[in-house]
Design a protein that fits this description.
The structure holds two protein chains of two kinds. By secondary structure, chain A is α+β, with helices and mostly antiparallel strands. Chain A has one domain: Alpha-Beta Plaits (2-Layer Sandwich). Chain A is built from two helices and four strands. In chain A, the strands form two sheets. In chain A, strands 1-4 form a two-stranded antiparallel sheet. Chain A has a two-stranded antiparallel sheet with strand order 2-3. The longest helix of chain A is centred in the first third of the chain and has 5 residues. In chain A, 34% of the residues are buried. Chain B is of the alpha/beta class. Chain B has three domains: 191 residues, FAD/NAD(P)-binding domain (3-Layer(bba) Sandwich); 112 residues, D-Amino Acid Oxidase, Chain A, domain 2 (2-Layer Sandwich), CATH 3.30.9; 45 residues, no CATH class. In chain B, strands 1, 2, 8, 9, 10, 11, 17 and 18 form an eight-stranded mixed sheet that branches. Chain B has a seven-stranded mixed sheet with strand order 6-5-13-14-15-12-16. A three-stranded antiparallel sheet of chain B has the order 3-7-4. In chain B, strand 1, helix 1 and strand 2 form a beta-alpha-beta unit. Chain B is globular, with a radius of gyration of 21 Å. The chains are: A alpha+beta, B alpha/beta. The interface between A and B is medium-sized, with 23 and 34 residues.
Chain lengths: 56, 396
Amino acid sequence: MMIIKDWCSYCGACAGVCPKNCIEVKETSLVFDEDECSEKCDICIKTCPLHALEKQ
Amino acid sequence: MILMIKTDVLVVGSGPAGSSAAKHAAIGGADVILMDKKAEIGAPKRCAEGVSKNGLKRVGVEPNPSWVTRELDGVRLVAPDGTDVWLTNDKIEIPEAGYILERKVFDKYMAMDAAREGAKIFIKTQAKGVRKDGDGFIVTCEKMGELFEIKCKILIAADGPESHIARWAGLKTSTKAKDMESGIQYEMCNVKLKDRNVIEFYFGSVAPGGYVWIFPKEDDIANVGLAVLPNVAEKPAIEYLDDFVANCDSLQEAQPVEMNVGGDPVGGIHKKIYADNLLVVGDAAGQVNPLTGGGIISGMTGGLHAGKVAAKAIEEKDYSEKRLKEYDTNLRDAIGDEMKKYLKVKDYLLSLNDKELNSVANAFQDIEFEKANTEELVKNLIKVSPKAVLKLGKLF
């Protein structure tokens, strides 16, 4: 499970680098396709400018 | 039964690239829908708001006082040890001089331009998925809980650095971590600059893989931001920015009124940005100057060419990849070479450590610049740095 901190600002940087294209960025929410996300990579976590993503 | 709307051209994303595409497709006579997921086009901004005057001219946009916050006279480049290089128009010619915009006004203005040419605008509308349907695409959309579909002959993907649309349609437009700048910015007041008409850049370990910018807006306001590359940064971008703000003399009394974040794809234009019934523009297509990270003009250039080609293709009833290739050709003729050159310069700059950057800034003190543009800077870089001669000598 990916934990999305409530200071996420929905900029979509994570979605752009996700090799599986499995992060949906809405205006005020971020949705991970948990079936697609392998959680083996941490590219999205590292790309976030705000440190708003964390693996559980 | 889900509602199905039909149109010639559907543009997903109403940033400057998408709105330009919508505008030019509409001028060319196509039926156009321009959709954006946000409640307010242009907000929040994900941008430092700098744009070159010539660039605006090239995409046919007249500057308007409602969205120009400041006209710039020059550039100040600051090395890690504080050695600075001033390039200002009292001494030299600045062909790339520019404006600092108010993107929240500018983006709406561009969308309105498209609407006044006949494009229909759907706001608060999110693309949920894309499927091929005969000679066209069907995009599933959601607007405040309601699902509906839009069927189009040509789909223009202008959905920013996320670039979902083109990927759903089968193109490889994801950005590698090493090519995605992780950006953060405060809009601040009480900013005390030495010259309020000069944009400032700070290089080196203050922002690994990127740089810090201070872009002055009206009065004592400025965008103060930075971008880092995730593969070389040791901490999140915001921590670098808070460190910079705490240590920068000009910002000791500065107070933030806004925080902006965003990803900026700086790996160059994606290899394939068109397919049957599909065109990709703006950040979604990697249309960003890899050196500066600036993407307003390059994205609008993409939008302009995509919109024009789409309108012609609609008129000729030929939406094939072969027909749409004209977009790729026109776009790369317009900005392809400079994007490639700037990518090499960026790679070179990234190879310099703080000590080497200091020595370049020192060597620049004795150089008389004739012009202040990127090309002139790189030419002089080649003069003072043996490493630059090797990597860039043939290009400039």
